[in-house]
Amino acid sequence: MQLKKKRWHCLSGQKPTEMDLKIMELEKRGKLVPTRNLIRTPEEIEGIRRAGVVNTGCLDACEAAIRPGISTQDIDDICAQYCKDHNAISATLGYEGFPKSVCTSINEVVCHGIPKKEDILVEGDIINVDMTVIVDGYYADASRMFIVGGKTTPEKEQLVRVTKECLDIGAAAAKPYGFVGDIGAAIQKHAEKYGYGVVRDLCGHGVGLEFHTEPEVLHFGHRGTGMVLVPGMVFTIEPMINMGTWKVFLDADDPYGWEIITGDEKPSAQWEHTFLMTENGLEILTY
Fold first, then answer.
1. The domain 37-284: what is its CATH number?
2. Measured between alpha carbons, how far is 70 from 145 in angstroms, rounded to an integer?
3. pLDDT tens-digit profile of 83-99?
4. Does 212 appear as a known binding residue?
5. pTM, full prediction
6. Residue 86 marked in a binding site
7. Do the annotations mark residue 20 as ligand-binding?
8. Handedness of CA 32, 36, 37, 39 (dihedral sign)
9. Which of 7, 75, 174, 240 lies most in the core, judged by the most C-beta atoms within 10 Å?
10. What integer pLDDT is reported at residue 11 of this predicted model?
């Protein structure tokens, strides 16, 4: 009989810590625990934190510029220049063929919108700007929603607001030695109170030393399921909330194969932060 390989191992030659004992007990009970290489060292956390400062500054620069009449290519130019000025690299540029430095997703575009000169923002549009930077080898990932011109329909305004609430509620549900599923369950409950669809085909993810690692952070689901959340883990929460159906499709007109559209072409919104799990809960690294 082949024994199941354990995911968690104590450091060689060291007595198990209190954290080790908690994790090993959860694994013994059949829970999915992280591997040790998902736990960031203090030095790595500081590196990710520095990247978070740059990422936040880049989104601040976008916020200052977004207005009716500018193109999404203008936003990409701002992000590219900000990276150049701050010794950073855009993680999306060239990633699996993605052609730009940032994702700009307008109205019914759920995510991965590609900046274009011909995409001109008009008053009332809602747009998600999703930026990931690399600074000294460390990654930080965040996105924000913007209402172009400062006002839109009540329906879109509510969608943007509730999606931000989903991010905050999901983060509050994440506790040390809790579960990824606790995050998704809290987000789904809040979104569905408004009749919204929670996108199921895309998710948050581990980040920090790479662009995407474990855990997969689903934004729907059930409490007590998924990977155990351990202090030292760094990951994104990035709920994509649709005004209508949760279903999505790949835009057939996108030659790069990236842009995702809502299934009923109603508006979508997304907010995202990179978080560090601590002994006291989550800390945002992309303020």
1. 3.90.230.10
2. 16
3. 999 999 999 999 999 99
4. yes
5. 0.96
6. no
7. no
8. positive
9. 240
10. 84
